[in-house]
Design brief:
The chain is built from 2 helices and 2 strands, in the order ααββ. The protein is an alpha+beta fold. The protein is elongated.
């Protein structure tokens, strides 16, 4: 079974994936990449974007907001976007 050329993306940190995505955007904006290569790197960019989105969602799920009492003392936590 052939390996997916984007399998390495799963092991990337957010920063690594974002850097790779920025390079792809730069390459595509320059416009000097052959069409077939442009399509391949665009598809890789989509995979990198999806990976970044997953990592951000995971981080957001872990972030909590500290609840304070009227006196300003911490009394617990709640989800960051909880009301």
């Amino acid at each position: 079974m052939a390996e997916n050329p984007d399998d390495d993306i799963k092991a990337m940190s957010f920063e690594q994936a974002l850097e790779a995505l920025e390079k792809i955007v730069d390459d595509l904006e320059r416009g000097d990449v052959p069409l077939d290569q442009s399509i391949r790197i665009y598809e890789r960019g989509e995979a990198l974007k999806a990976h970044c989105d997953r990592l951000l969602k995971s981080a957001e799920d872990k972030v909590e907001k500290i609840r304070l009492s009227r006196e300003g003392k911490p009394v617990g936590t709640e989800p960051l976007d909880g009301e």
